[in-house]
Amino acid sequence: ETPKSQLVFNVTKPPQEGYITHLSDHTKSITSFTWADLNDLLVAFQPPNSSHAERRNYEVEFEVHDFYFRNSAPVTVHISVRPADTNAPRVSWNMGLDLLEGQSRPITWEQFQVVDNDDITAVRLVTVAGLQYGRLTVRGGKGFMFTVNDIKAGVVRYHHD
User: Fold this and answer.
1) What is the pTM of this model?
2) Number of CB atoms found within 10 A of residue 161's CB
3) What's the burial of 116, exposed, middle or buried (CB within 10 Å: 0-12/13-18/19+)?
4) Which is deepest, 26, 29, 62, 155, by most CB within 10 Å?
5) Triad 101, 138, 143: Cα angle to 5°
């Protein structure tokens, strides 16, 4: 019998939408993970980046491989994602920025996305706490409030001290 610590899980049939990810970098899909990853709760399902009014169901199929490269029968995991009980806007994607001191970069739609069930053009994003190591600008001037269209236009920038 192979010790649990040497078991490897392979994704044999990924979900139709979304992906399985490791929480060390939730922006990338993975095709395998270890028992230790699973035991440490480091494996997750990243649903598609869209809002739905109804519950969404997904299936993922895995095989477990042991130390001797024998594999288990396929295991199907069913995942159900229910909608939030709010109509408030929410951040649906936040990949963050990596900057060195003195650098600045725009905050892009690929890095930071917001969804709203009502009117996304009416959403205003407001900085509510001080930035520790830099400042935001919107269209070149000091800024603490901006819109989704500002992000899409690339006019919101973070400037690292």
Assistant:
1) 0.58
2) 10
3) middle
4) 62
5) 85
